[in-house]
Amino acid sequence: MKTLHAPLLLLALLTAQAGAGQSLIEHAHVVPMTGQVVLEGHSVLVRDGLIAAVCAPGASCGDGSAETIDGTGKFLIPGLIDMHAHTNPGVSPNMDEEMRELAHRVQSQQLRQYVMFGVTTLRDTAGGPANLEIRERIARGEAIGPRIFTALGAMDGDPPLHAATTPFATGEEAATHVFNMAAAGYDFVKIYSTLPQPVFNAIVDAASEVGLPVVGHVPMPIDVEYALQRGMRSIEHLSGYDVACAGPEAGIEPIMDDVYQGMNYCTPEKIRQLAEMTTRYDAWNCPTLIVQDNVKSEWDRHTVFNEEEARYTPPMLRIFQEYLYDIFRPRARAGLKAARIPRMALVKALSDAGAPLLLGTDTAASGYNVHQELALLVESGLTPYQALTAATSEPARYFERVGEFGTIVPGGSADLVLLDANPLEDVANARGIAGVMLRGDWWPRPRIEKELAAIQDEYARDAEILARQSIGEVP
Distances from the Cα of 128 to the Cαs of 185, 187, 189, 366, 386, in angstroms? Predict the structure, then answer.
């Protein structure tokens, strides 16, 4: 099947924007993510934004003209990848110019912050025209940000699950939308929870015709295996498995109060069977454990506050989170919290069965939440290496771009993260960043700290704007 490929010209520009210089990261312990191995004391030569060589200790690495970066005692991993991001600015027609500028600034803040946390590629599962625009600006060196793959919003049934998706009542109009997305340069199709089977089929058929993968929520009226048979490329949030666990007798409906509630019907045997079934299809799961883990009961909503996470969340998005609590009512949130154990058990079962996983967040503290998700994958029973695979080499395999990013190999993009300690021993060590290389551009820790401080200053000014505009109180 055809899968998403950004235009070749864009990829060339993304590489060129790093400049024509050379860098040599010397004497690092390289974790290439081509296998569970550490190449001790190796050096990595970077030229024109690409990895030119990976050199063993004592071997000549380049002609001596490269700028050197001391990696002694440190660990070098590929840049991390968030496979379920949302960075498209929430611009509405009734916004004044000040608010429109703020919304676009939020996108810039998110993308820059991603890089500071070691994220060099992302998949935006409900983007828009601003995503196409900013990835071209990134390619021209006019903006800082990860490599971006993007959809155009989320396609839902009519009525939709909620107002943030686009409803489609007929297969014909849905297919036309898919054709238009492909023509505009979007990379894949995102589907949602209330699609009836005829409209779902029309979307899948149209996407196959134009070579766009279909990802997203398994629609609640559709059996998860049928969705896999039709070729869904990735399943988000473990959707579909919950309905399969519950069965038709549970009366699960495609409404907010029922979404993901079927996970509470899962048993160890049902999970084992579903995981084994999944391995028969060429599909990935993106569990986004952090988005469910961050859901608060009504009590916790008013008593629990993660100050560090809030620090890395744009003020506008902190206000938006309050809107989500309004549409996702207390009983439904309690059901999500109750399903934590079977949800994690399903992740472990999928991994054990050989069904591939992708790391995604679907949350607002860009980059910060990626490290939370790594920890949750390990808490689910994965090894640190398996968790890192979901954030590096497995996304590259999903995109059919093995060797281009997600691993440290000659010819690949120089997207690298230098760490103070071994992440294979403790995945929390992936947070201890000494430096990030973004397509050949080196960000040492002082430069990262300076950029994070600038983003914090912007957050403070944006909070003042929101207060003056009476948009809402920033939690």
Answer: 11, 11, 12, 18, 32
Pick the CATH number of 80-404 from 3.40.1350.10, 3.40.190.10, 2.70.70.10, 3.20.20.140: 3.20.20.140
Paired with 189 in beta bridges are: 214
Can you give the pTM of this predicted structure?
Answer: 0.95
pLDDT in tens, 147-178: 999 999 999 999 999 999 999 999 999 999 99
Spans of all domains in the chain:
80-404
Contact 216, 190 (CB under 8 A): yes
Residue 177's closest CA among 210, 222, 150?
210
H helices of 117-196, where? 129-139, 171-184
* 319: number of Cβ within 10 Å: 16
Q: Which two tokens stand for residue 241?
A: 């498995």
Residue 41 tokens read as 């004391």
358 within 8 A of 286, measured Cβ to Cβ:
yes
Tell me: cis bond preceding 159? Omega within 30 of 0 counts: yes
Q: In degrees, to the nearest 5, what angle opens at C-alpha 99 toward C-alphas 115 and 454? A: 35
Task: For 59, list phi and psi in degrees, rounded to 5.
Answer: -80, 150
Residue ranges with strand state E in 11-170: 22-30, 39-47, 50-55, 67-70, 75-78, 80-85, 119-124, 147-150, 155-156, 166-167
Contact criterion met (CB below 8 Å) for 388 and 423? yes
Residue 322 confidence class, pLDDT cut points 50, 70, 90: confident
Which residue intervals of 339-472 are DSSP H helices?
Answer: 340-353, 368-379, 384-390, 393-398, 445-468
Report residue 345 as tokens. 């058990």
Coil, helix or strand at residue 100: helix
